[in-house]
Design goal:
homodimer; alpha/beta; Arc Repressor Mutant, subunit A; Rossmann fold; 2 domains; seven-stranded mixed beta sheet; 10 strands; DNA-binding
Chain lengths: 216, 216
DNA sequence: TAGATTGTTAATCGATTAACAATC
DNA sequence: TAGATTGTTAATCGATTAACAATC
């Protein structure tokens, strides 16, 4: 077992392993090799072995990895062996879309509260179980329900203000869908899920429709 | 001016520069230095200078970058000086959310058609201008409207089938929101926008709520 | 001119991949 | 035993950062 600082790149691959392993489990596959994993996930087998070896000796030489055992281990590493409560701030279209993914997020991570600042939206049901609360109630609810992660799906201009609220309420991590670089204290982890960046950068890779000249 | 192979990391930063520069333009700031950009965007100034220098000498020593000029240049690099048409496949909650972002995507990239396989959704209006078409019409519409990018917001199991359809219709790039590794020919660029990965990996960085023991 | 800031080279840092002994 | 596959070290590759001459 190693215990250096684990790189972000490694951590981001863990959920990808977890998802595919869960699929294998459902198909009652009991063992898998780094080779097979790599083929399916478009990753180098050595990289997969190395990633996993950071956390322990989970495999068996000559055999591979026990699917069910590895799932348990990764879930533990990701702290998903306990339920993690999540707050959604912003009950617009995107927020609503995410709340419906609750079913997919069967990994012990659950959106347990939704907030919006628009009075018209307060009291609305989004998804089967979530009722939109006024944002003024965020602090109290976060503490009562032991919410540890916040998802921000509000418009750009409100994002920083919401982040401050979440941080003030004691949240530990934020998933930010607004295209803003949030300023947060160092103990709060922020991941940015900005699809406009993904989309616009795609254009770069299009075939040049126009002339292909090197103008200065 | 350089002209090696540009790394993916560089290309992904271009839209980030573009967005902030646009904000500066709106505020009538005419010049900006790599230092200021770096501060605001949480990036190393040297990295910003290097990124931009791959494409040309856009700055002026002792002065910085002309905001308006740099915007034009980046838009050109990203091929956003022409309109890029986009198709949305999957008119569920997420697809609907994205179609409303059309206003935000003022950068000449526009969702011009939406498709779904669910007969109940055909004919529905999503966003102000988009009417959901049956997926059988995808091939024809993509060709008629010169659509070059496809966004996949269908359930996991349908994602690969839809990708095949898009590729068959001659699309050049795909933004995939389904948590599936798509198999596509090498000339088709695929970006994955999988927020479940972002969300689950956040859990890793939470403070250990449980005991902090190194069990084997 | 003096101060500021670029473009670029060299140095550093980090991540991926290859290779292979250990061993099931 | 022979074949397969891990865990890990070493080699490679690529990306970030520091430093500075050029110059506005």
């Amino acid at each position: 077992m190693k215990s250096d600082k684990i790189s972000e790149a490694v951590v981001r691959r863990l959920p990808i392993y977890l998802r595919y392993l869960t699929e294998l489990l459902k198909r009652e596959v009991s063992t898998v090799s780094s080779q097979e994993l790599g083929q399916r996930l478009d990753l180098n087998p050595a990289q997969i072995r190395k990633d996993l070896a950071y956390f322990g000796d989970f495999g068996r030489k000559g055999i591979g990895y026990d699917v069910s055992y590895l799932i348990d281990k990764i879930r533990h590493i990701l702290k998903l062996d306990q339920q993690i409560n999540v707050a959604l701030v912003g009950a617009g279209n995107l927020g609503q879309a995410l709340s419906n993914y609750n079913t997919y997020i069967k990994d012990n991570m659950k959106i347990v509260a939704a907030f919006d600042s628009n009075p018209k939206k307060i009291g609305n049901k989004i998804s089967n179980t979530l009722v939109v609360q006024p944002i003024e109630q965020l602090n109290e609810t976060v503490q009562n329900l032991n919410i540890r992660i916040g998802i921000i799906t509000v418009p750009d201009i409100e994002a920083q203000r919401v982040a401050d609220l979440l941080v003030g309420a004691g949240i530990e991590a934020i998933l930010n869908f607004a295209p803003t670089i949030l300023k947060t204290p160092p103990h709060v982890r922020v991941h940015t899920a900005d699809f406009t960046t993904d989309l616009l950068s795609l254009a770069y890779y299009l075939e040049n429709g126009e002339d292909h000249v090197d103008n200065d």
